[in-house]
Design brief:
The chain contains 6 helices and 24 strands. The protein has 423 residues and is an alpha+beta fold. The protein starts with a helix and ends in a 13-residue tail after the last helix. It has 3 domains: 119 residues, conserved putative lor/sdh protein from methanococcus maripaludis s2 fold (Beta Barrel), CATH 2.40.420; 68 residues, Beta Barrel (Elongation Factor Tu (Ef-tu), domain 3), CATH 2.40.30.170; 132 residues, OB fold (Dihydrolipoamide Acetyltransferase, E2P), CATH 2.40.50.100. The radius of gyration is 44 Å and the shape is rod-shaped. Strands 1, 2, 4, 19, 20, 21, 22 and 23 form an 8-stranded antiparallel β-sheet that branches. Helices cover 28% and strands 35% of the residues.
């Protein structure tokens, strides 16, 4: 019996608690509806602290206010005082010669077409160095090393013997031996020339008839010695590299361009290069090569630029800043709008156009890729429209808040129910 009474008491308390929760929920809902009804009629449009008013809304359908992006107001009004305090500024849409800039960081290196090796033309021993350290500037045909070569000595003696034989036969020999002597002399001379002996040295050999025990290796180009292998007293083989010489009057700049920007880059385009070493100076180059392969790790493509460097201020190994300038529709100025005028929602691009002083209309536009401080306009604006370029985020935020309040209030039907008081 006692257990049954306890069970009944618990059921009674449970029902009473459920009823109290239900009544409280209804009261909170009624009070909330009453507050939003007041906010719609007094708070948004008549509150003295409001700075913006919704001047025009999208038409409703079927008696209901539309929701979503299309529900935002088309036009916003702003008092002159508020516009001045908010620093609202407009700018006319006009046609401009747009230039897109692809910015990147580059590295200066040697122009591989202007690198030369000074090599040993013959087996021998280096007896003297005319250039004994790297960094030295040399002129073309300047002496680099002096090499002693027994093979060179024997070939010169062979040449002198063939020359004497030809001279003797020409005095009274038959044509056939004379022709053979001439052929031997020409073959020996050709071998000397291939070893790097200069024509004037052969002429001196013919005049003095005295073989030289040494030969000089000359610089193949004018430039800077960037690597030296030669040492006095070392023996070298034919073809061994003694010096590496670079002409630095033109260098390469290597840069990586991101995958999404590579469509803009073309051969021959102008490149402006700046360096922290020369902050007041700009160097100019041209795009000379675009790598046909993509680096899958960095998602970039290597691009090479030819850069004239007559004063040799750009040093291999330097990091520089590069801007590839790309004219957009070179012959026709493009209708454009400042970058700061465009609000990107992720789905749409919006601008606010000043139709009358203090009246700003929201317009959806289609734009092209950014070119410097401007976007080319595809559609949505015409030349002469004045677009908001400063404080447009404030206008957009206020219009969105106003639209949200109006949309919520418009969805409430009837009057607010006053709260119920229990005694």
């Amino acid at each position: 019996m006692i257990a049954e009474n306890n069970h009944e008491m618990k059921k009674s308390r449970h029902k009473k608690g459920t009823f109290i929760i239900l009544i409280s929920t209804i009261l909170i809902a009624i009070m909330g509806l009453g507050y939003w009804k007041w906010f719609k009629s007094e708070g948004v449009h008549k509150h003295p602290g409001a700075t913006l008013e919704v001047a025009k809304e999208m038409p409703s359908h079927g008696g209901h206010t539309p929701t979503g992006p299309q529900a935002l107001p088309l036009e916003v009004r702003l008092s002159p005082e508020v516009a001045q305090r908010a620093c609202v500024r407009t700018e006319a849409v006009q046609r401009r010669q747009l230039i897109k800039e692809v910015q990147t960081v580059g590295r200066i290196t040697y122009d591989e077409r202007r690198l030369k090796y000074a090599t040993a033309w013959i087996d021998g021993r280096i007896d003297r160095l005319y250039v004994d350290f790297t960094g030295v500037k040399v002129e073309k045909d300047a002496p680099l090393v002096l090499i002693y070569s027994p093979e060179l000595l024997s070939t010169q003696e062979e040449y002198l013997l063939a020359m004497e034989t030809l001279e003797r036969l020409e005095k009274g020999g038959s044509p056939q031996p004379i022709a053979a002597a001439k052929a031997l002399l020409e073959a020996t001379e050709k071998r000397l020339l291939l070893w790097g002996i200069k024509p004037h040295q052969i002429q001196e050999l013919q005049k003095t008839k005295k073989a030289n025990t040494h030969m000089i290796i000359h610089s193949p180009i004018s430039g800077t010695v960037i690597h030296k292998n030669a040492l006095e007293g070392m023996y070298v083989k034919t073809g061994e590299k003694l010096y590496t010489i670079a002409d630095l009057s033109q260098v390469w700049m290597l840069a990586d361009i991101f995958e999404y920007e590579i469509a803009w880059v073309k051969l021959g385009q102008r490149v402006l290069i700046t360096s922290s070493a020369y902050p007041q100076e700009t160097f100019e180059g041209r795009v000379a090569f675009i790598d046909p392969f993509l680096n899958e790790k960095t998602r970039t493509i290597a691009v090479r630029m030819d850069v004239p460097n007559p004063a040799e201020k750009l040093k291999p190994g330097m990091f520089v800043d590069a801007r590839i300038q790309i004219p957009i529709e070179e012959s026709v100025p493009v209708l454009s709008v400042p970058v700061t005028a465009v609000l990107d929602t992720g789905v749409r691009k919006l601008v606010y156009v000043e139709r009358h002083p203090g009246h700003y209309q929201r317009i959806e536009v289609k734009i092209g890729p950014r070119a410097g401080n401007y976007y080319p306009v595809v559609s949505g604006l015409k030349e002469g429209d004045r677009v908001v370029v400063s404080a447009n985020y404030l206008i957009d935020a206020q219009s969105t808040l106003g639209a949200a309040a109006a949309a919520y209030g418009g969805a409430i039907e009837g009057e607010a129910v006053p709260p119920v008081h229990h005694h």
